[in-house]
Design brief:
globular, 5-stranded antiparallel beta sheet, mainly beta, 139 residues, 4-stranded antiparallel beta sheet, 1 helix, 40% strand
């Protein structure tokens, strides 16, 4: 009567098992899972990308230029194991420094990151990364 339209959510579905703490950012088309403060030391350089429309989860290591994806059919109840996804990309778990990201922002083109040195990078939904520019302090 008051004009409020209710929302109805479907049942929860676990997409990814055995996953470290990650920060969730969303654009209109994709979900991005970036390393959070409590990320496991060996995977603090990894970003996960979930494209619901494509039914694809991608793990990317922007600092290494590596990515690996897996198609999932949620209607069939497909899920993914984080550790198995990482094993699908040789070299991903070699010791690396954590991403020194100051902040993240989701955009329609991908996930923008600003690192502590001022470098701006775009991690695209397919896992590829490219430099956008560098921010410098005013003189």
């Amino acid at each position: 009567p008051g004009g409020d339209a209710g929302s109805s959510l479907g049942p929860a579905h676990v997409l990814l098992h055995h996953c470290p703490p990650l920060a969730l950012l969303a654009s209109r088309r994709d979900l991005f899972l970036a390393p959070a403060a409590g990320a496991w030391p060996g995977v603090a350089h990894v970003v996960l990308l979930w494209s619901p429309a494509k039914g694809r989860v991608t793990v990317a290591a922007p600092c290494l230029g590596l990515s690996h994806g897996k198609s999932l059919d949620l209607a069939r109840g497909d899920t993914c194991d984080f550790r198995a996804l990482l094993r699908g990309l040789p070299g991903l778990l070699s010791p690396r420094e954590p991403l020194a990201v100051h902040t993240w922002a989701a955009t329609p083109q991908g996930l923008l990151s600003l690192d502590v040195g001022g470098a701006v990078r775009l991690v695209q939904p397919h896992g590829g990364a490219r430099a956008v520019g560098t921010l410098q302090a005013a003189p």
